Amino acid sequence: MIDNYLLKELVTFASEKTLAKTAEKLNVTQPTVTRGMQKLEDELGIQLFDRQPNRIILTDTGKLAAEKATEVLAVNRNFVQQLQNYAARLWASAKLLPSV
Fold first, then answer.
1. What is the pTM of this model?
2. Residues with Cβ < 8 Å from 5, sequence gap 6 or more?
3. What distance in Å separates the CA atoms of residue 84 and residue 62, rounded to the nearest whole number?
4. DSSP secondary-structure letter at 99?
5. Which one, out of 1, 65, 89, 98, has a CA that is 20 to 30 A from the CA of 15?
6. What is the dihedral sign for C-alpha 75, 79, 85, 88?
7. DSSP labels for 28-50?
8. For residues 29 and 3, what is the distance between their CA atoms, to the nearest angstrom?
C-alpha cells in the first residue's frame, strides 16, 4: 500500500512543477521530497519522472499517477470525514440519552 504522504508529494509536485517549490509548500526539505519520489517510483515499479541535469519533470505515466493520486487522497479524506461525522452523531445521541 502506498503511503498518503507520497501521494501528496506527487500531487504537490504536479502542481508546483519543481522540487524546491514542492518542498516549500509541504514544509519539508528538498532531499525529503527527492527521496519520497524515488520511494514512490520504487514501490510502483515504474518511472514517474524524467530526470535531466538541473530539471525534473513528470513523465506521461507520472501525470496519470498524479491525477489518480488526487482521486485517492480525496477518497481517503472523505473516508475519514464520514467516520468522524458518524462518531460525532453517536456521541451526541449518547449525550441525549437519560442517565440510569
1. 0.85
2. 36
3. 32
4. P
5. 1
6. negative
7. S-HHHHHHHHHHHHHHHTS--EE
8. 18
Whole-number CA gyration radius for the chain = 19
The percentage of residues in the chain with a pLDDT greater than 90, rounded to a whole number, is 83
Condensed to tens digits (0 to 9), the pLDDT of residues 25-70 reads 999 999 999 999 999 999 999 999 999 998 999 999 999 999 999 9
Single-letter amino acid, residue 68: K
60, three cell numbers: 506521461
Please state the length of the chain.
100
**Nearest one of 74, 75, 70, 50 to 61, comparing CA atoms:** 50
Distance of CA 25 to the CA centre of its chain: 13
CB atoms within 10 A of CB 28: 15
Helix pair angle (4-16, 60-96), 10° resolution: 130
Cell of 15: 502542481
